[in-house]
Write a structure and sequence with these properties.
Number of strands of chain A: 9
Number of strands of chain B: 11
Oligomer: heterodimer
Shape of chain A: globular
Shape of chain B: globular
Distance between the termini of chain A: 37 Å
Strand order of the largest sheet of chain A: 1-9-8-3-4
Largest sheet of chain A: 5 strands, mixed
Strand content of chain A: over 45%
Structural class of chain A: mainly beta
Helix content of chain A: under 10%
Order of helices and strands of chain B: EEEEEEEEEEE
Radius of gyration of chain B: 13 Å
Order of helices and strands of chain A: EEEEEEEEE
Radius of gyration of chain A: 13 Å
Structural class of chain B: mainly beta
Strand content of chain B: over 45%
Amino acid sequence: DAKTTQPTSMDCAEGRAANLPCNHSTISGNEYVYWYRQIHSQGPQYIIHGLKNNETNEMASLIITEDRKSSTLILPHATLRDTAVYYCIVKTNDYKLSFGAGTTVTVRA
Amino acid sequence: GAVVSQHPSWVICKSGTSVKIECRSLDFQATTMFWYRQFPKQSLMLMATSNEGSKATYEQGVEKDKFLINHASLTLSTLTVTSAHPEDSSFYICSARAPGRGETQYFGPGTRLLVL
């Protein structure tokens, strides 16, 4: 599976959009980009995933660059409950998830 | 939809005893479930892949005789930590893969194990 690079941490203001970057320059054509988050002392929560096209659901939007070497997760209106560690993972559908260190996002009032 | 539960949510046991953790997919059938372990301030580490009706596949370095996995039905997988020791104290998390949802994995809430 391709490795990903994410910033260690970031702060964002409550009510503003949070843009979380992820680099995956060695991604293969059949690998998806998955985003999960883990709120303290809980199991990870699935957020969104995509292959080539941008995706949006009730939680977030995923923007994937045309060359697929990077992506951005957008939380449109961050709340204090969005404070968590966010993991960007690339993998094929039938392969295992491999969690890196992720980005620790702190939403401040 | 795609809810995964774990039981118990936390357990304290004496060294040398065995502990069983259950993982259930509540609203879908999961032919594949996964077991992870997470130590404080670390990321999740995959321990094993559990396939319904067959033997589990363990990751390198995980003792299969110590961490017994049974996936007897399409909605239930169990992890038994045998002869638990203090170093087995950790946060154990399962996930289930949901067919038809892009093979996305959905996670349980985790089980915190403390071995005294």
